[in-house]
Specification:
The protein has 435 residues and is α/β, with parallel strands linked by helices. Helix content is 47%, strand content 7%. The protein folds into three domains: 128 residues, Rossmann fold; 107 residues, Serine Threonine Protein Phosphatase 5, Tetratricopeptide repeat; 154 residues, DNA Cyclobutane Dipyrimidine Photolyase, subunit A, domain 3 (Orthogonal Bundle). It has a five-stranded parallel β-sheet, with helices on both faces. Helix 4 runs parallel beside helix 5 and helix 13 packs across helix 14. The structure holds flavin-adenine dinucleotide. InterPro entries: Crypto/Photolyase_FAD-like_sf, Crypto/Photolyase_N_sf, Cryptochr/Photolyase_FAD-bd, Cryptochrome/DNA_photolyase_1, DNA_photolyase_1_CS_C, DNA_photolyase_N, Rossmann-like_a/b/a_fold.
Amino acid sequence: SLSLVWLRRDLRLHDNAALYHALKSGRPVLPVFIFDRVILDALDDRRDRRVEFLVQEIDRLRTELAGMGSTILVRYGNPIDIWRELTTQYPVGDVFANHDYEVYAKERDKAIGELLNERGIGFHTYKDQTIFERDEVLSGSRTPYTVFTPYSRNWHGKLDPFFLKSYPTEAYFEHLHRGIGQDEANVLTLGDMDFLPVGEPFPNRTVSDTLLDAYKETRDIPARPGTSELSIHLRFGTISIRDLARQARAANDKTFLNELCWRDFYFQVLDHFPHVEKSSFRREYDRIEWRNNEDEFDKWCRGETGYPIVDAGMRQLNTIGWMHNRVRMITASFLCKHLLIDWRWGEAYFGKKLRDYDLSANNGGWQWAAGSGTDAAPYFRVFNPTLQTQRFDPKGEYIRHWVPEFNSLDYLPPMVEHTMARQRALDLYKKGLAK
Ligand code: FAD
């Protein structure tokens, strides 16, 4: 019988916990990837960078595996149906996978675990995409942290090299299953799933030590390529979080490590407080009566608010599917506070467009901007887009790159005046929270 390893957001053979355990199971190992129709059918744009990235990365895995005489089984459908088929078609002894912390994924894994167990097949899952997960970093009273600073203190304190060791999968590749033909493995193209290519290259999967050395100074300047742009690779596991954290540690880059800590933090928030997916972490924020003006929302989406930094950010997002972190904070704050539009609208728009879309970080970032989240800035702190521009893009380089017409004298007037909008936000928040 076989050990199947179900790859999901861990698309690599190197340092992969589930693959490592499968390779040590004593049975021949066959990797599987399922293009999940539950997720893909919900996407309304047929040009989707994430789907394109997946197709490309599955191809890369197939080539790597072919070099060792093996392959990856690729399927397209509802995972529960696919697992019924796979366990009928193949003599499966055990299935291995890595943990996923999203609500949908946890329910899916539970259902599939049950199906496999009914058929006498073990389902074994492991921590892989985070450094610490679930209950590994808890407060003194053994409860999950809901504020970042004490969480991060504890997280950094626990960061022993032991937790950053790679799983030496390479030493066991002789246990990969061989002898499955291409037809059976099933090569799926974008077209087979009714998607079209976007055709833009994806960022590299490595970060230089030079960038890490300068990260602290350059990470907040959106005109500079001062961040790693590894987010899509971390999202789909095409790089190992342990390798990356080790590199940051060796470069002695605490600031960069701290960003990886934010990533773990939001995963554990979603895992422990699944209500955040649909509601405010602080429930009283759901009493705010958002203005939710659809025309204003459309202007924000298109990058036509008349605030150049906001417009530049939205156009960067619409054009390349990525936005600099500083500008994500500014555009998100603008939507929630200046336009008083429900953070969930913005969250969903980012969710459609971001190539690095990750429910946990996106939800965390949006709830932070709205003031409704775990680690919220107090609601009365309203970003001033003009001051943010003076601080982080003083020469307007980032703005002119994404909004070339900004140089002309008749650039769009601001859609709302800042002082009025700020006061309006304070009043509306106060009213909602006092209810
Ligand atoms: P770097 O600065 O090079 O950071 C390295 C890695 O650390 C990132 O790739 C990411 O995995 C992690 N990281 C950095 N900052 C954060 C953070 N604040 N929270 C969690 N992880 C972080 N990040 C996503 O990966 N997916 C999202 O959907 C997402 N949505 C966001 C929405 C809003 C409103 C905000 C304010 C932030 C969001 N972020 C999201 C966090 C952050 O903006 C991106 O991770 C970062 O811009 C990605 O670029 P980078 O890889 O160059 O980051």
